[in-house]
Specification:
The longest helix is centred in the C-terminal third of the chain and has 19 residues, at about 105-120. By secondary structure, this protein is mainly alpha-helical. The protein has helices spanning about 1-5, 25-40, 55-70, 75-85, 90-95, 105-120. It is about 60% helix and about 0% strand. About 5% of the residues are buried. The radius of gyration is 18 Å and the shape is extended. The N and C termini lie far apart (about 50 Å).
């Protein structure tokens, strides 16, 4: 974070992606750069899209962070609040959508609920 702050000359730039000059990257440059990296890495698409999109990285990050929080027995409500803020969602419910987005998360959430229900029945 300090390197980024030095790069933007301590100005308050809210965009995540910045240029070497410390200025926000425009959408066209972000998508052009991502397309170049995707081609060099030979990434292929899965699902509904022929090629991975920048937005897919955000989705993957959120899903992996949630899986990790379940595996580490962390409070998902706390983690989801942090993730929601980090990715810039205005409502935490927008981030909760990712809980149902992949089978691994749904399975882990189901296991956690089963343990909760089992304890409640005892």
């Amino acid at each position: 974070m300090d390197a980024r702050r030095r790069r933007v000359n301590d100005r308050r730039i809210e965009t995540f992606l910045i240029s070497d000059r410390g200025t926000p990257l425009g959408d066209r440059m972000v998508h052009h750069t991502f397309a170049s990296l995707r081609a060099r890495l030979a990434w292929t698409g899965r699902g509904d899209y022929a090629l991975p999109r920048v937005h897919d990285l955000r989705h993957t990050y959120i899903c992996r962070a949630l899986v990790r929080s379940y595996q580490q027995q962390q409070g998902v409500d706390h983690v989801i609040d942090l993730l929601s803020t980090y990715v810039g969602h205005a409502r935490v419910s927008d981030t909760y959508w990712y809980v149902t987005a992949i089978p691994d998360l749904l399975a882990l959430a189901g296991q956690r609920f089963a343990l909760f229900a089992e304890r409640g029945a005892s």
